[in-house]
């Protein structure tokens, strides 16, 4: 017997007797004996206390970045966490419910998704946003496949700025081959921005289904979005903006305002724990005219049989449970609870608050840039004149890996090595600042850097 | 559903309609010099206005979500007998461990010396899943079941290409979940349907005929979506392997046999495991889940990167590997979901996992026994963890499976699965799962029997259900025709 199993030994006997059996083994006779075992090669069950101690011991083997100054970003950021977010997420009505296929008893989840979609439309500047995708990397994949479908599968080339998060690009390459898509990567110029001319050249005319850039990019630099969407459209391609630091959208214009066709990416910044990489939250927004090619779930407003407002999942004819092999994506379970977290977070922070929060990230980043520039050789800002939001690339006395390790020895998580996945840019550290980095954190970083040469 | 109480809640955007300034959260003080973005950045990069959200105070936010929560049904409220979804109890211990600051707060790009605990945890869960399945290798990277399917099929594709034996189609039984054919297509394969025989399992003659040298393999759900075990599984695997194909096993129904049988002995080459089904991690209203994939020796070289490597007591990450299919997503998986699954597996252990499937199967057979007089059993084959009825008896009174489902809501139960298997017209696929008390399963049976009587005596009552829910039957057709997928100030709708 076990607390997580509802029937005890007496119940087992009683039910067996009702259905006319003597042993539960009789229920498994359809399984061939040759594939059966008597027990699994693992220990028997443990009690709560033992489990808690065992997992706490593993947690203690980690260094929590909440304990030391941390400037790690590169797609995962530490932002403020209103206590309300976890309180809502801990409600069993939300976290223990299923996908809202039965709208009459799922209005809570459905309305929250509808609110999430609206919040993301506002931030991206686009007309429609879906209920979520797995993460930023798979959101890029879905955007590329979306563009491929919109162009009716006739344009197989995708032009990608190298400054799209290299991990996202790596994930895309897993899917591109089987999907019949060829990826062309365009490196950045010395200013850390992708060259619009180089994008045009790579895209050609009528050969490319989409041009995708990240802004702010992996090096922290804000791309020239108006010029890029113009170039993409001249080439007959869709323009896709990837966003890895969603808080930037509180201060910077989303691609929709610059005529981008898709704005997608990672919304971990909106109230999700770093969590060693997951669960995070992919998002996807596009134009209403292309909604039927959109991947993932979508909540819509309608009425019930008494004419009252109600919400339900809609356009499910795009999805695998209806369309099977012809679905826009094979996605089924995705990141529902994480979208709820982002919704609660955004509604707590508010529109004015989000801009203030984004400006605080920007101010702290500008302060750090100035102080690092003041340190002088051997430290350098890789792109001193480039427009950045809250992240930037620096170089110093050694490779990025060496710098990260040496500064970590001084108890500062200074940044992410810029060559972790390779790259045509300088080998250094990508440093991120958020509203949670205090002036004392910055002092610790600058002091530690000053101690290296 | 509670009769008293909340039946609707205004949208967030409808609050504070005058958009008066209020505050929902206080930001930390700015203790560095403020910088005006307009003085530094090009004008076109900056938003003209703040995001146009209403500001509301903290209590109003809490009330908003509290009220929304009251409009939801959940596992904690009652039986959730969705077939093939395994809606079991989500232990509260899982929620505690996944919130340990030393696990939740860790950045995925910290130096590996700083994250030995996380890497060890991944390794521990990998070992546990290998023990449960008897397979040779595993990846915890996929974010959900369908994502795991895709990882598995891409590994099969890679293995065949490595052999110089590229093939262009995979076989999918007609009883399969919709993600199977969708996955095949996403991986660049044509999905070829295999018919089920009279007992609901794969028809061997069809398989023999279809399993040609263009077929990369077969996607089999074991037990299948009828709750019926593919009792010729070893024979099927031998035939497919003999003709150069590989076996993909959909592990959505692992709850039927965990602790009793091993996919490794069945001839599986790849199988995904839904941690949010068998291993109790919460469904979260539609994710996040996790879909680890266990593989045979043949596919081990092709597992996704990065992979956790153990040398003695030191763990590291292998980020590149030429034979690998590559990365399926960012980082290493839905890590905090993995923490919950390991918590559960430690809690049940070898003895508990076997008891889990025992009771899951026992409950399904109790439901079968109690309902087979009133509802038509789609297949007579022995049921494992779920049982599939159809609405053919009730359809005679023009009462269909969706009506029965909606009427169940009035009785306080979530309906069974109805959207598949497609081979059963008007399906009612019932999976009670082992964690509820037996009285709850019996109460569900009573409700089903009462609805069967109502279908005879007052069919309109069933057809017009639900009557007790916060909203009555929702017009899903209108939602698709008059598409409105975001709030707008003027409330306009666009017709398609």
Describe the structure in your own words.
The complex is a heterodimer of chains A (453) and B (496). Chain A is of the alpha/beta class and 453 residues long. Chain A is built from 14 helices and 13 strands. Chain B is built from 16 helices and 14 strands. The interface between A and B is large, with 205 and 207 residues.
How much helical structure, as a percent, in the residues of chain B? Answer: 25-40%
Report the strand count of chain B: 14
In round numbers, the mean pLDDT of chain A is 96
> What is the β-strand count of chain A?
13
Oligomer: heterodimer
Number of distinct helices of chain B: 16
Helix-strand topology string of chain B: HHHHHEHEHEHEHEHEEEEHEEHHEHHHEE
Distance between the termini of chain A: 63 Å
Bin the helical content of chain A. Answer: 25-40%
- C-alpha geometry of chain A: globular
> Count of DSSP helices of chain A?
14
Strand order of the largest sheet of chain B: 1-7-6-5-4-2-3
Strand content of chain B: 5-15%
Strand content of chain A: 5-15%
Radius of gyration of chain A: 25 Å
Widest sheet: strand ordering of chain A: 1-7-6-5-4-2-3
Furnish the topology, listing elements before pairings.
The complex is a heterodimer of chains A (453) and B (496).
Chain A: H1 9-18, H2 48-60, H3 83-89, H4 92-95, H5 107-124, E1 128-129, H6 136-150, E2 157-161, H7 166-179, E3 182-186, H8 196-203, E4 208-214, H9 225-234, E5 238-243, E6 262-266, E7 282-286, E8 299-303, E9 309-313, H10 320-323, H11 336-349, H12 351-375, E10 380-381, E11 391-395, H13 400-409, E12 416-417, E13 429-432, H14 439-450
Parallel strand pairs in A: 2-3, 2-4, 4-5, 5-6
Antiparallel strand pairs in A: 1-7, 6-7, 8-9, 10-11, 11-13, 12-13
Chain B: H1 37-40, H2 58-69, H3 92-97, H4 101-104, H5 116-133, E1 137-139, H6 145-162, E2 169-173, H7 179-186, E3 190-194, H8 204-210, E4 215-221, H9 233-242, E5 246-250, H10 263-266, E6 270-272, E7 293-295, E8 307-311, E9 314-318, H11 335-371, E10 376-377, E11 387-390, H12 392-395, H13 401-410, E12 427-430, H14 438-457, H15 459-463, H16 476-481, E13 482-483, E14 494-495
Parallel strand pairs in B: 2-3, 2-4, 4-5, 5-6
Antiparallel strand pairs in B: 1-7, 6-7, 8-9, 10-11, 11-12, 13-14
Helix pairs in contact in B: 5-11, 6-7, 11-14
């Amino acid at each position: 017997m076990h607390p997580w199993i509802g029937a005890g030994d007496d119940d087992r006997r009683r039910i067996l007797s009702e259905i006319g059996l003597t042993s539960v083994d009789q229920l498994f006779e359809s399984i061939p004996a040759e594939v059966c075992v008597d027990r699994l090669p693992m220990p028997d069950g443990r009690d709560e206390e033992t489990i808690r101690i065992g997992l706490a011991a593993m947690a203690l083997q980690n260094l929590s970045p909440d304990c030391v100054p941390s400037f790690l970003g590169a797609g995962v950021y530490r932002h403020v966490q209103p206590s309300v977010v976890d309180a809502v997420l801990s409600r069993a009505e939300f976290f223990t419910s299923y996908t809202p296929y039965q709208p009459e008893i799922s209005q809570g989840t459905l309305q929250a998704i509808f609110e999430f979609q609206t919040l993301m439309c506002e931030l991206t500047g686009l007309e429609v946003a879906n209920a979520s995708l797995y993460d930023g990397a798979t959101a890029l994949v879905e955007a590329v496949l979306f563009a491929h479908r919109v162009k009716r599968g006739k344009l197989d080339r995708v032009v990608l700025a190298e400054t799209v998060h290299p991990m996202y690009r790596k994930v895309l390459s897993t899917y591109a081959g089987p999907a019949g898509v060829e990826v062309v990567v365009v490196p950045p110029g010395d200013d850390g921005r992708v060259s619009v001319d180089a994008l045009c050249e790579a895209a050609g005319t009528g050969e490319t289904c989409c041009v995708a850039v990240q802004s702010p990019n992996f090096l922290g630099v804000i791309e020239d979005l108006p010029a890029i969407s113009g170039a993409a459209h001249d080439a007959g391609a869709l323009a896709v903006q990837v966003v890895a630091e969603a808080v930037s959208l509180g201060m910077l214009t989303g691609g929709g305002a610059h005529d981008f066709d898709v704005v997608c990416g990672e919304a971990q910044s909106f109230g999700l724990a770093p969590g060693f990489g997951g669960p995070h939250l992919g998002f996807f927004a596009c134009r209403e005219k292309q909604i039927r090619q959109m991947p993932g779930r979508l909540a819509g407003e309608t009425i019930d049989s008494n004419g009252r407002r109600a919400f339900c999942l809609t356009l499910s004819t795009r999805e695998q449970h209806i369309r099977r092999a012809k679905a826009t994506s094979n996605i089924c379970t995705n990141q529902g609870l994480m979208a709820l977290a982002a919704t609660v977070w955004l509604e707590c922070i508010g529109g004015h608050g989000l801009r203030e929060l984004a400006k605080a990230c920007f101010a702290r980043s500008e302060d750090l840039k100035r102080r690092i520039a003041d340190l002088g050789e051997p430290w350098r800002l890789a792109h001193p004149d480039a427009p950045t939001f809250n992240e930037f690339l620096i170089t110093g006395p050694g490779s990025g890996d060496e710098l990260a390790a040496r500064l970590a020895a001084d108890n500062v998580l200074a940044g992410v090595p810029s060559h972790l996945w390779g790259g045509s840019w300088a080998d250094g550290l990508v440093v991120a600042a958020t509203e949670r980095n205090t002036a004392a954190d910055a002092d610790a970083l600058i002091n530690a850097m000053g101690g290296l040469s | 559903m509670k009769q008293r109480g909340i039946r609707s809640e205004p949208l967030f955007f409808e609050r504070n309609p005058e958009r008066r300034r209020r505050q929902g959260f206080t930001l930390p003080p700015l203790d560095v010099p403020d910088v005006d973005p307009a003085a530094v950045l090009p004008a076109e990069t900056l938003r003209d206005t703040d995001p146009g959200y209403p500001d509301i105070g903290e209590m109003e936010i809490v009330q908003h979500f509290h009220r929304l929560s009251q409009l939801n049904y959940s596992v904690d409220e009652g039986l959730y007998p969705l077939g093939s979804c395994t809606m079991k109890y989500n232990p509260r211990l899982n929620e505690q461990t996944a919130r340990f600051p030393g696990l939740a707060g860790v950045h995925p790009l910290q130096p590996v010396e700083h994250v030995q605990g996380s890497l060890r945890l991944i390794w521990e869960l990998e070992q546990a899943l290998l023990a449960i399945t008897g397979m040779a290798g595993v990846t915890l990277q996929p974010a959900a079941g369908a994502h795991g399917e895709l990882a598995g099929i891409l590994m099969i594709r890679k293995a065949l290409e490595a052999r110089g034996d590229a093939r262009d189609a995979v076989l999918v039984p007609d009883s399969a979940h919709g993600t199977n054919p969708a996955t095949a297509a996403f991986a660049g394969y044509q999905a070829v349907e295999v018919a089920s025989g009279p007992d609901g399992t794969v028809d061997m003659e069809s398989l023999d005929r279809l399993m040609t040298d263009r077929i990369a393999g077969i996607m089999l759900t074991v037990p299948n979506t009828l709750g019926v075990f593919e009792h010729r599984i070893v024979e099927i695997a031998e035939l497919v392997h003999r003709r150069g194909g590989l076996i993909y096993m959909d592990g959505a129904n692992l709850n039927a046999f965990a602790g009793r049988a091993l996919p490794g002995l069945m001839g599986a080459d790849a199988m995904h495991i839904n941690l949010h089904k068998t291993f109790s991690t919460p469904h979260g209203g539609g994710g996040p889940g996790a879909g680890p994939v266990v593989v045979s020796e043949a596919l081990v070289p092709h597992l996704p990167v990065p992979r956790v490597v153990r040398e003695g007591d030191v763990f590291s990450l292998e980020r590149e590997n030429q034979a690998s299919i590559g990365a399926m997503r960012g980082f290493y998986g839905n890590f905090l979901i993995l923490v919950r699954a390991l918590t559960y597996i430690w809690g049940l252990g070898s003895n508990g996992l076997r008891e889990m499937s025992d009771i899951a199967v026992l409950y399904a057979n109790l439901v079968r026994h109690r309902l087979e007089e009133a509802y038509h059993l789609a297949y007579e084959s022995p049921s494992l963890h779920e049982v599939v009825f159809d609405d053919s008896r009730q359809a005679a009174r023009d009462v269909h499976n969706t009506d029965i489902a909606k009427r169940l809501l009035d009785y306080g139960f979530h309906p069974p699965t109805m959207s598949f298997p497609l081979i059963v017209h008007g399906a009612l696929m019932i999976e009670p799962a082992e964690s509820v008390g037996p009285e709850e399963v019996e109460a569900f049976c009573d409700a089903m029997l009462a609805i069967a009587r109502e279908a005879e005596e007052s069919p309109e009552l069933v057809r017009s259900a639900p009557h007790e829910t916060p909203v009555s039957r929702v017009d899903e057709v209108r939602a698709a025709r008059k598409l409105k997928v975001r709030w707008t100030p003027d409330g306009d709708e666009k017709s398609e």
